[in-house]
């Protein structure tokens, strides 16, 4: 199927032009809209648990429904993106998410609500894969860490919007009113994505194959990608623990009111977004995605232990620790995501990124009920301390270095094919 990409290096874009930045902005905002849908149920937990009496583990399961939907379809969306390009995958995914949001707004029971949240998560998975390919495809290696760091702002940006807007909407109008926000956002960006996004250039499939019948499978002969996938799955455990249970910890355990706690979560997500950009720039400066990834893993363990002790401190100190924890625990995503895309190449990156996100969100879908149950059994402090074990286990899984610079070049916008995978 035609992919509408330039055929030779002279037609390729350069990072200094405005087009890559326009693609980046659109991709970020589209995925942020999807993230609002995905994260909205987490901010319904206080309503469900404290006002409607739903057990915390069950409320956490409902909050994890969109994440479970993501797990089901990420690789399929990635394979479709490898075949047809990014533009229509993002636009169609956003449109389908809006349809699911309509169902969530009108759902009459929790089973129906969970079903529509599951379907919406499955549809929104399109942006998780395709938006990353847009960024990697439009930016050269020396700016890719910065660009992907900005792209990774979509997740904390979406969570911040949900944290500030969903609790008051739910309080005033219930679940239906709260889910109207992601409905509007995903519908708007379905249209904008179709109008604005242009598929990034990439080399001809025959050039990338280097004379073979098709481009080489990057998973053959190397465990590098698999190790990154495994480490990333462990690193989302503290991230989703903070994002799912941070609000309820502040309100139920630390005694903050919902509005103040929502503002704390929003500020944490905003600072976390800036932290992702900073870590991306750092990876450009040090010439490695994986070395900073190990640093972030150690920091994630440290902040979760600090958060455990925050239960003994005044509420404002707990809020400050939560901001630090939310900032650190989201910093790894862009590093691992960029490394996977660079290693996989332009004709496998969709599937590789889909696999990357599948492992992450599979782990994340377990966090809601598992950590919720753990909190019920042992309380917040010991649960936070137990979560710190996940990033510690991730450190030895992170590979020591990437493949050669020649192999990284397979995703350069000038289309030069890379050396065969080791």
Structural commentary:
The chain has 422 residues and is an all-alpha fold. The protein has 18 helices and no strands. It has one domain: Growth Hormone, Chain: A. The model is unreliable at 1-15, 206-213 and 403-422 (pLDDT under 50).
Explain the layout of strands and helices.
Elements (H helix, E strand, L loop, with lengths): L18 H21 L5 H7 L4 H8 L1 H20 L2 H20 L3 H29 L2 H11 L2 H43 L8 H5 L14 H30 L4 H29 L3 H20 L5 H15 L2 H13 L4 H30 L1 H8 L1 H6 L10 H4 L14
Helix pairs in contact: 1-5, 1-6, 1-8, 3-15, 4-6, 4-15, 5-6, 5-8, 6-7, 6-15, 7-11, 7-14, 8-11, 10-11, 10-13, 10-14, 10-15, 11-13, 11-14, 12-13, 12-14, 12-16, 14-15, 15-16
In short:
The protein is an all-alpha fold.
Looking at this protein, list some descriptive labels:
single chain, 422 residues, mainly alpha, Growth Hormone, Chain: A, 18 helices, 0% strand, disordered N terminus, disordered C terminus
- Could you list the spans in which at least 5 consecutive residues all have pLDDT below 50? 1-15, 206-213, 403-422
**What's the CATH topology label?**
Growth Hormone, Chain: A
* Helical percentage: over 70%
Distance between the first and last residues' Cα: 29 Å
Amount of beta strand: under 5%
How many beta-strand segments?
0
From the alpha-carbon coordinates, what is the Rg to the nearest angstrom? 21 Å
Order of helices and strands: HHHHHHHHHHHHHHHHHH
What is the CATH level 1 assignment? Mainly Alpha
- Count the domains: 1
Question: On the 0-100 scale, what is the average pLDDT?
Answer: 80
CATH architecture: Up-down Bundle
């Amino acid at each position: 199927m035609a992919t509408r990409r330039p055929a030779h290096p002279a037609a390729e874009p350069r990072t200094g032009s405005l087009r890559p930045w326009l693609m980046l902005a659109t991709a970020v905002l589209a995925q942020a809209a999807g993230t609002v849908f995905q994260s909205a149920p987490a901010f319904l937990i206080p309503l469900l648990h404290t006002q409607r009496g739903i057990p915390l583990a069950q409320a956490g399961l409902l909050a994890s429904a969109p994440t479970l939907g993501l797990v089901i379809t990420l690789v399929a969306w990635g394979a479709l993106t490898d075949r047809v390009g990014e533009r229509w995958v993002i636009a169609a995914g956003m449109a389908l998410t809006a349809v699911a949001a309509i169902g969530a707004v009108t759902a009459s029971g929790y089973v129906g609500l969970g079903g529509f949240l599951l379907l919406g998560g499955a549809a929104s998975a399109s942006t998780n894969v395709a938006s990353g390919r847009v960024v990697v495809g439009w930016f050269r290696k020396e700016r890719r860490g910065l660009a992907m760091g900005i792209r990774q702002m979509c997740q904390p940006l979406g969570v911040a919007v949900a944290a500030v807007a969903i609790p008051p909407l739910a309080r005033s109008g219930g679940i239906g009113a709260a889910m109207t926000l992601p409905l509007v956002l995903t519908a708007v960006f379905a249209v904008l994505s179709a109008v604005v996004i242009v598929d990034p250039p990439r080399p001809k499939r025959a050039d990338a194959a280097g004379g073979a019948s098709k481009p080489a499978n990057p998973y053959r002969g190397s465990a590098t990608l698999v190790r990154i996938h495994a480490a990333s799955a462990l690193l989302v455990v503290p991230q989703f623990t903070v994002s799912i249970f941070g609000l309820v910890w502040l309100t139920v355990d630390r005694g903050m009111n919902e509005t103040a706690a929502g503002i704390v979560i929003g500020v944490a997500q905003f600072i976390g977004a800036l932290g992702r950009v900073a870590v991306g720039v750092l990876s450009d400066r040090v010439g490695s995605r994986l070395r900073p990834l190990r640093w972030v893993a150690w920091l994630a363990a440290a902040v979760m232990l600090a958060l455990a002790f925050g239960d003994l401190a005044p509420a404002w100190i707990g809020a400050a620790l939560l901001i630090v924890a939310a900032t650190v625990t989201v910093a790894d995503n862009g590093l691992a995501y960029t490394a996977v895309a660079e290693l996989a190449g332009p004709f496998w990156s969709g599937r590789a990124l889909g696999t990357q996100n599948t492992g992450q969100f599979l782990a994340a879908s377990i966090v809601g009920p598992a950590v919720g149950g753990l909190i019920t059994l042992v309380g917040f402090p010991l649960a936070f301390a137990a979560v710190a074990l996940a990033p510690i286990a991730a450190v030895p899984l992170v590979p020591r270095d990437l493949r050669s610079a020649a192999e990284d070049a397979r995703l350069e916008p000038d289309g030069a094919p890379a050396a065969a995978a080791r």
